[in-house]
Amino acid sequence: MPPGSHGPVIWWGGWGRGRRKPESGPANSGLTGDPTIEPPQLPEGPKDLRGRWESLKQSVVGTTAALPQVLRLVWEASRPTTIGLFATTAIAGIIPTISVGITLMLTNAVVAGININAFHVPDRVAFATLGVPWLPGPTLTAVQMIVLLAALQFAVFVISALLNTLRNITQQLLQNSVSMRIQLMVMEKAASLDLPFYEDPASYDLLRRAQNDSINRPVLMIATAFGLLQTILTLGTMIVLLFGVSWILGIAVLISPIPAFIADTRYGWRGYNIARWGSRLLRRMTYMVNLVTTDSFAKEVKLFGLGQYFIERYRLIASAFYDSQRSQMVRRYLTGFALGNISTIVTSFTYLYIALQAIAGHLSIGALTAYTQAAVSVQNSIQSILSGFSGMYEHNLYLNNLVELMAKQPSMPVSAEPKPVPQPLRGEIRFENVTFAYPGAENPALTEVSFTIKAGETLAVVGRNGAGKTTLFKLICRLYDPLEGRILIDGVDIRDFEPTELRRQIGAMFQDYVDYQATASENIGLGNVLEITDREAIVSASKQAGSDELIANLPDGYDTALGKWFDAGVNLSGGEWQKVALARAFMREDAKILLLDEPTSALDAQAEYDLFERLRSLTHGRTAVYISHRFSTVRRADRIVFLEHGRLVEEGTHEELMRLGGRYARLFRMQAAAYTGEDIEVLVEDNSSPLAGKYPAAGRAQGAHPEKPGEGAVAAR
Prior knowledge:
Elements: H1 49-77, H2 79-92, H3 95-119, E1 125-126, E2 139-140, H4 142-192, H5 201-213, H6 217-245, H7 247-255, H8 258-293, H9 295-303, H10 307-359, H11 365-406, E3 429-436, E4 446-453, E5 458-463, H12 469-476, E6 484-489, E7 492-493, H13 499-503, E8 506-509, E9 518-519, H14 520-525, H15 535-545, H16 548-552, E10 561-562, H17 574-585, E11 593-597, H18 605-618, E12 623-627, H19 631-634, E13 639-644, E14 647-652, H20 654-660, H21 663-676, H22 696-704
Parallel strand pairs: 5-12, 5-13, 8-11, 11-12
Antiparallel strand pairs: 1-2, 3-4, 3-6, 6-7, 9-10, 13-14
Helix pairs in contact: 1-2, 1-6, 1-11, 2-4, 2-6, 3-4, 3-11, 4-6, 5-8, 5-11, 6-7, 6-11, 7-11, 8-9, 8-10, 8-11, 10-11, 15-17, 20-21
């Protein structure tokens, strides 16, 4: 099946044509406005019989072709349990035939006993006289034979119940194993994909469907396939009995369930489409639940009285989702009921025909009972086979979500023969005419940026919000690749390195750092998983970040749980969490490149001062790059670059940039004015540049600051 396909397209389905891309059009978070989203479109399929037959053939071929892959998945999850499920299912397939045979003999034995008492004939009954002349066995009295056959029937019932129990046990055990395997597959795939994958909202829909909709389907599909084997075994023996009465009757019983099967498969495809469409609504519903039930949002929810509002929005979105499910479900079952009546009519005529044959003396009472059971069993078997295939087809549709996710590949190419990271790494970083735009963005985040960070140098990156500062860090970590230009470390294009090896040389703290619901030790140790249990390394990193005293005062020190999701832990303030995250960045003592994005944004003045007093010694022998809006700390850097609208507009030391009197100097004085009371002229942007139409950011930068001495120049280049 080709990657990204959603199963065979049969005449009653086909959802992809004419549908807009997921999450396209106006933003719809679900917090306001109409809670519904565009429903799936169901284009018309072929109307003629040949077209429908071809489409049905495609669905059969597509479903059966997927079986080996699903069987391999289940087999690898647990071989013994898979064998157990197959064995119990196969053995159960011959039980109904044995039961019908015993019923035949038992009924005839009762009739024989009645005749013995009524006509005073010898009380001798053998298997051969009970409708099975080919079966050898003892000659017993009527009562003894009835007791023996009743005991055998009881044993068959017990064995059947035992087999069903064993099948349920093996299926549940197999389900647990497969569920864990699929979750691991999804996690491994998600971990292997690049950051751009997570920029697309459709990716979250796909992840949710692969985790939730696909997790039970492999076992259900294999259990259904094994059930089909059981049913075929039952059908093969029963059909011989039924055709012995009338071949016309046998054919009628065989084909009567087919209309209901077609309807079930048709609605299975539609149900899959609605479930696929509804995954976006389900994500919004989950988001509303998280807003009301997660501690991260609790303060604002309480303060602004948002709880009831979010609950009402959830009710509206859930109603839209379940309304679509309700109408589909009602149509499906009512159609199944209407077409299922065909089977009921055929069954009634079967009973009537067999009864008339018995009245005419062509069948014994035992044969009447046996053939009636056989007719019901054949019809049920056919229904089970068709509904089983319909179920397999539907399971396969949902499994395509997992197949689609597994087919995703990292978007950033990795060199077939990557160059080794130099050892030891000096840490020189050079940007050469780098231009970058985020997926789907109209404007570039960086435009033709060029500069060099010397090995062992401390560089501060400053600029207004949205200038592209954090983007620099993402590119250095190779979370994205530039659209144009290149980035070199120690003279080697970073695209020539193996990404994992490159990232091992980088210690970083991003502005949106993670608060892990784990112990303080684990929170820091995650910065270097290989040393996550090395308490000495963890304490050393904590001291470098200034979090050692904080952690020492916690109830259990480094073993204290931070956050209260899983254990009776403690909640930290924003500044305290930032210290822990900073310690995580220092865990990689061998990393020659240190990237710190707003490392002191949540720290108090004393903690910030202490950190930057230590920073020069902490970064000795490392190339350090940090982003900060606090110019009192920025001035300590060896060199400063100023970004504006994705362009590098100024570069130099603090003293050089102050003498330049440009953007940096102006913003420095504006911040200092809060303490000195000096009046500073407000910088007004101009959008009159001819570039403003295509790249408004670039236009504003050039229009606001025409290049003249002291303006728009780059110092110390």
